[in-house]
Amino acid sequence: MSRFAAWRCGGFSRAAAAGGLACVLGSAIAASQQLSPQTAPQAPAQIKPIEPPASAPQLTTPDADITVRAARARELAHTYSERLRIEIVKALKEGGPIGAIGACNTIAPDLNTSVTEASTFEIGRTALKVRNPENAPDDWELAALEQFQKDIAAGRDAKTMETFDVVATKEGQRVFRYMRPITMREPCLACHGPNVAQDVKAEIAKYYTDDKATGFNLGDLRGAFTLIQQID
């Protein structure tokens, strides 16, 4: 099963699966605290777009259409983060960080599917340092993540950040893409911080043998929600 499971989009196809998301615990909670429909930027003037790489050329699309798609993607990202937060908090209460790691192995794919089936978007997450290697960013996502990281380092508020565009696949399909950042908050530290407990590390290793998603500090860029929608 691919991370964007409903269809494959040339250079943007991604794997997703059984391990679900790049972050298994805290970043979902952090994300739900960051960018809600009430705090999200509402006008293109507040959005700093990121130029897609040469392999994904920008196409001309009416601004109104892009804005409508972005509003829907923003709403879905918020819904996704809230639902994931609720499930993770429940798992944490029942089994602590170790129990929640196993629960997230099934929670994330199920939520991906339910959100996708309720919309025309595919949804997932990615990061510069991933827990599940199948969630590694493609070229467009990498450019977005690197820009998010630069802006956060420069002191910009992550709550105001997002990027979206209409780009072309290698096969010539037009797709709409959207990303918004997730930063590290207190709950993230148990599984992604600089001092992860040995028993938590051992449990993570049962599911993710090539984990690179540790060593983060509060406020760091943890990753991003990433959504894609086929236009034609």
Helix count equals 5
How would you classify the helix and strand content by structural class?
A: alpha+beta
Calculate the mean pLDDT score and round it. Answer: 75
- Largest sheet composition: 4 strands, antiparallel
Number of domains: 1
Q: Give the helices and strands as they follow along the chain.
A: HHEHEEHHE
Low-confidence stretches: 5-60
Strand tally, please?
4
* C-alpha Rg (nearest Å): 17 Å
**What is the topology, as strand order, of the major beta sheet?**
1-4-3-2
Helix proportion of residues, in percent?
A: 25-40%
What is the approximate shape?
globular
Oligomer: single chain
Topology, pairings included?
Blueprint (H helix, E strand, L loop, with lengths): L25 H7 L30 H55 L4 E5 L12 H15 L9 E6 L5 E10 L5 H4 L5 H10 L13 E10 L2
Helix pairs in contact: 1-2, 2-5
Structure report:
The protein is 39% helix and 13% strand. The chain is α+β, with helices and mostly antiparallel strands. It has helices at 26-32, 63-117, 139-153, 189-192, 198-207, and strands spanning 122-126, 163-168, 174-183, 221-230. It has 5 helices and 4 strands, in the order H-H-E-H-E-E-H-H-E. The chain starts with 25 loop residues before the first helix and ends with a strand.
Summarize the structure.
The chain has 232 residues and is of the alpha+beta class.
Q: Which terms summarize this structure?
A:
232 residues; globular; 5 helices; four-stranded antiparallel sheet; alpha+beta
